[in-house]
Amino acid sequence: MSSKHIDFYFDLSSPYSYLAATQLDAIANRHGATIAWKPLVLAAVFKAQGNVMPAVCVPKAQYMVKDLARWAEHYGVPFQMSSRFPLPTIRGMRLIIAAESSGRSGELAKSLFTGMWERDLDISSDAVLRTLVSECGLSADELMAATETSAVKDKLRAYTDEAISRGVFGAPAMMVDGELFWGNDRLHFLEQQLTK
């Protein structure tokens, strides 16, 4: 078992979480670290911590679109701003939790991120979610049913509460050795921590 572990807190609606998700596997592999994919409800985090989404400030929102494109080019990954942003993502995040028992939550998270931020799909649609789950080779019927269970709903709340209690105020947020690293642009500091 790896001696290093990354808790990755994210919301599928966060484009910067998507960007971080494209890089985390490589970072973890370089350092023999494991990743726990922990979806959270970003609106609840913002409310609890007194934060607001960047797009509330119009000049910042305009800058953000350019910044996201720059980061995608820097990483060499596809990106397009969702034409449906902001989009409800609770069901998708519950699917990720439902996939934990198969050990494939990270794979499904990346598929859903790709659906929203590369393919401009409506991941609030059950039909789209079923397709993305099936593309991962998972059972859409089983996982979609699981999203309605109290166990899965409670775990999404628990991840959100856990993040808030650990000082998370936005997404993406990564924790290593009790240290918080917030934002796609802090991944180099995350990697430094993994070398310690």
Report what the structure shows.
The chain has 196 residues and is α+β, with helices and mostly antiparallel strands. The protein is built from 9 helices and 4 strands. It has a 4-stranded mixed β-sheet with strand order 2-1-3-4, with helices on both faces. A hairpin with a 2-residue loop joins strand 3 (173-176) and strand 4 (179-182). The longest helix has 18 residues, at 58-75. The mean pLDDT is 94.
Short note summarizing the structure:
The chain has 196 residues and is of the alpha+beta class. Helices cover 55% and strands 11% of the residues.
Features:
9 helices, globular, 196 residues, 11% strand, single chain, four-stranded mixed sheet, alpha+beta
Total helical elements: 9
Estimated share of beta-strand residues: 5-15%
Distance between the termini: 17 Å
Largest sheet: 4 strands, mixed
How are the strands of the biggest sheet laid out side by side? 2-1-3-4
Averaged pLDDT, please?
Answer: 94
Q: Radius of gyration from the CA trace?
A: 16 Å
What class do helices, strands and sheet pairing give? alpha+beta
Residue share in helices? 40-55%
Tell the overall outline: globular
Order of helices and strands: EHEHHHHHHHEEH
According to DSSP, the number of beta strands is: 4
Low-confidence segments, given as residue ranges, are: none
Topology:
Elements: E1 4-10, H1 15-31, E2 33-39, H2 42-49, H3 58-75, H4 90-98, H5 105-117, H6 126-135, H7 140-146, H8 150-165, E3 173-176, E4 179-182, H9 187-195
Parallel strand pairs: 1-2
Antiparallel strand pairs: 1-3, 3-4
Helix pairs in contact: 1-3, 1-5, 1-9, 2-8, 4-5, 4-8, 5-6, 6-7
